[in-house]
Design brief:
eight-stranded mixed beta sheet, about 35% strand, 4 helices
């Protein structure tokens, strides 16, 4: 082996294979201090949005070209909650969520002087849930199976088993929290369950 070949191997910085097929996004877990303890600010998405209207979510969105995940989380929080970067104290990156289609970077942060403002273009309303709720409540859990759908031109004849090949169904656990009248589910619930475990 040549020295250059060995150098390539020893100096390689690992990356994630297939990341280019994932949408990369960031969210913020916004914390505010109250007399009743720490609260997490959550949003209800606008009913005018095409994707998941009126679902409960954390402020966030796609990472734009040239942005770091943290910069995206701060920008999205400012846009959706109508706040300034100076009002945000980012504590750090929490557990990253990875699915077949998404890589999601959640950042825990403290908001200062937040007056429950929001942008009506993206948000229907905002509300707070005590951090202690997520720390003490176990979410409901439902397992779903996502079948494999092959394109018509998939070369089945080139793999052992062909049409009878035993594809593994992708399984996913869907979580639900019910806080008063609010149903918090899916990716948002997974992020908050993980955060509750970190902070418990």
């Amino acid at each position: 082996m040549s020295p250059e070949f060995i150098k390539r191997l020893t100096e390689h910085t690992p990356s994630l294979i297939g990341l280019e097929q994932c949408r990369q996004a960031s969210v913020m877990i916004p914390l505010i201090e109250t007399r009743d303890g720490l609260q997490i600010v959550l949003e209800q998405r606008s009913s005018k949005l095409n994707h998941q209207p009126r679902d409960i979510c954390l402020p966030g969105g796609a990472i734009e070209l040239g942005e770091t995940p943290q910069q995206a989380a701060v920008r999205e929080a400012c846009e959706e909650l109508l706040i300034q970067p100076e009002q945000i104290e980012v504590f750090g990156l929490m557990d990253v969520l990875h699915t077949n289609t998404l890589m999601l970077y959640p950042y825990a942060a403290k908001l200062s002087a937040y007056a429950m403002t929001y942008s009506p273009a993206e948000v229907e309303r905002v509300f707070c849930v005590p951090l202690s709720f997520f720390q003490t409540q176990e979410p409901e859990q439902y397992r779903i199976n996502l079948p494999v759908h092959l394109p018509e031109n998939f070369p089945l004849s080139r793999i052992v088993g062909g049409e009878n090949y035993q594809w593994r169904e992708r399984r996913e656990d869907i979580l639900f929290y019910q806080y008063q009248d609010w149903t918090i589910w899916g990716i948002t619930a997974k992020i908050l369950q993980s955060f509750a475990q970190i902070t418990k």
